[in-house]
Write a structure and sequence with these properties.
With 61 residues, the protein is mostly beta strands. The chain has one domain. 7% of the residues lie in helices and 16% in strands. The protein contains 1 helix and 2 strands. Strands 1-2 form a two-stranded antiparallel ribbon. The protein binds iron/sulfur cluster.
Length: 61
Amino acid sequence: MTTNPGLCRRCASGRSIKSGRGSVFWRCAEHDRDPRMAKYPPLPVLRCPLFRPLEPAPEPG
Ligand code: SF4
């Protein structure tokens, strides 16, 4: 089953983790700096004050 993480997929702090059973969890790296942030936020995350978009890949050349 595919998990829809919402904003976490496009966030610089989102880390996907696959369990041994094949389930996918999304870990929030902001938790390391601010323990008030959930380590494993309930998904999908639709709004988040700390969302930071991933940097776009650099243009080749
Ligand atoms: S900061 Fe918000 S959007 Fe980004 S990974 Fe954490 S919970 Fe998800």
